[in-house]
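pinging the channel bc i need a second pair of eyes. not urgent but kinda urgent?? the chain im working w is below, pasted from the shared doc
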Amino acid sequence: MKKKLFALLLAGAMALSLAACGGNGGSQEETDATPSAEEQQGIQTPTPTGDETYVVGICQLAPHPALDAATQGFIDALEQALPGQVDFRNQNAANDSGTCATIVNGFVSEGVDLIMANATPALQAAAAATAEIPILGTSITEYGVALGIEDFNGIVGTNVSGTSDLAPLDQQAAMLQEWFPDAQNVGLVYCSAEPNSKYQVDTVQGYLEEMGYVCAQYPFSDTNDMASVVQNAVDNNDVLYVPTDNTLADNTGVIHNICTPAGIPVIAGEEGICAGCGVATLSISYYDIGTTTGQMAAQILKGEANISGMPIEYAPNFVKMYNPSICGELGLTPLDGYDAIGGAE
């Protein structure tokens, strides 16, 4: 009887021990399964194995020297960080926002590992297409404006990050005053379809008005009304300011053909536009910001960084530049401290 009782007690103790072990195993599984911040947001995080290969989609808004340089910098940096491991899908939207959407939707359907969006419409299309695939923007002036984020603090906080091409707008306004201190009326020309262009002209106008200039904005909706708007601005102003604007960048010949014969100088937001129609600019290296974007991409693909916590990166250096050809056409003497675009004096 005692042996039977002892056996029953021993069996019960073993059963309780097994149950306890089973309970601990369940708790451990729950702990290991706790999702990361990226997983909770549904962001895809690559899990590299050392020789992993990746597919990266590039959507560039338009063919333009500045955007081309940013794309090349991105590709070069990523190939350097992951040699032979990246398959690039490089597509150009020919300056059509609808085509940007088509391109990025194709990337999403393919299931690429990362999307690089070059210029604001490309970024907006990519952000609308996926909340899961990591998206890095470049050649974006202001991410808060581009993505409709109020009180933007420098971190998007979703599957989007990247680099900005914003040069100090107060210094651009000061440049206009440095070149044309006796001018009275300044026309600010931009494409109304580009929210970052509106942001730039609003900001620059504020600085110029503090300096005593009378300013007027001349928005155009697309290339169909661009020439007439530029002509109106030329007829009513002493000097024009054009921001970093993709539509303007794609049509600098139109601006040059209207402004230069009329003797109206243009201060431009970046080097590529200035090379086509401007007198001077405070510019960045688009290749450099593309390189930074590629380095960010490598960190994401290798699992070294969480894109939702990556701050927007800005160009570290800005260069004062002038256009020798247009200065010559307008009879303007280049100011000290400016580098010639193209390296020619």
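so The chain has a mean pLDDT of 88. and The longest strand covers residues 54-60. — does that match what u expected or am i reading it wrong
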